[in-house]
Amino acid sequence: MSIYDFKVKDAYGNIVNLDKYKGKVLLIINSATECGFTSQYEGLQLLYEKLKGEKFEIIDFPCNQFGNQAPGTNAEIASFCNSRFGIQFPIFGKIDVNGNNAEPLFSYLVGQKGFEGFDAKHPLSKGLDEMLAKVDPNYKNDPSIKWNFTKFLIDKNGNVVTRFEPTVDIEVIEEQINALL
Predict the structure, then answer these.
(1) Burial class (CB in 10 A: 0-12, 13-18, 19+), 67
(2) Which residue in the list 26, 27, 28, 35 is annotated as catalytic?
(3) What is 3-180's CATH number, 3.40.50.920, 3.90.550.10, 3.40.30.10, 3.40.50.10860?
(4) pLDDT tens-digit profile, the chain (181 residues)
(5) Which residues contact 5 (CB under 8 A, 6 or more apart)?
(6) Segments making up each domain of the chain, as ranges
(7) Alpha-carbon torsion 109, 158, 155, 34, what sign?
(8) Torsion sign over Cα 142, 145, 150, 152
(9) pTM for this entry
């Protein structure tokens, strides 16, 4: 099984078969428009502009499961991303990434690469750790997605290579993408 076996809905409700991305390196993210990590859109767009001609694509899935930080409609989210950050990569329909209603693609991604911890150097890591530990003292052993802007790197064959928590710097992500290109 690979990500090419999945179908997802775009922001307009159309079914998209992910096999259309065969041969490309992908960065699949769950995002939110009102998150402390929303400013990552700027770095992601710059990365996209730099690498999009190199058989690279970013696929963005808004998610409202973490603090209701993606409250808008698909159209409102796309408009925000375009006007505020000039986003040119595809923004798909809003989804759940955890729980009974999780998008099957994300259940697969989490099954391939679980949670390995936040980057201790990032200023928001301590707060995330404390907040998550209050809800579930054993959260570090659960592979689920912990917050918005979690990213999965997929190679040209559709294999999940690595998972980046929202606390990982874009430069680290870019290095690993370049290694796959």
Answers:
(1) middle
(2) 35
(3) 3.40.30.10
(4) 899 999 999 998 999 999 999 999 999 999 988 787 888 999 999 999 999 877 999 999 999 998 888 888 888 888 888 888 899 999 999 999 999 999 999 999 999 999 999 999 999 999 999 999 999 999 999 999 999 999 999 999 999 999 999 999 999 999 999 999 9
(5) 18, 19
(6) 3-180
(7) negative
(8) positive
(9) 0.94
In eight-state DSSP terms, residue 147 is S
Phi, psi of 136, rounded to the nearest 5 degrees:
-150, 100
- Residues with Cβ within 8 Å of 28's Cβ and at least 6 positions away in sequence, in order, are 3, 58, 59, 61, 105, 109, 151, 152, 154
Closest CA to 80 of 53, 36, 137, 41: 41
- Please state at what angle helix 74-85 crosses helix 40-51, rounded to 10 degrees: 80
Active site residue 35: yes
Which residue is listed with tokens 């159309």? 14
Residues 96 and 105: their CA atoms lie apart, in Å, by 10
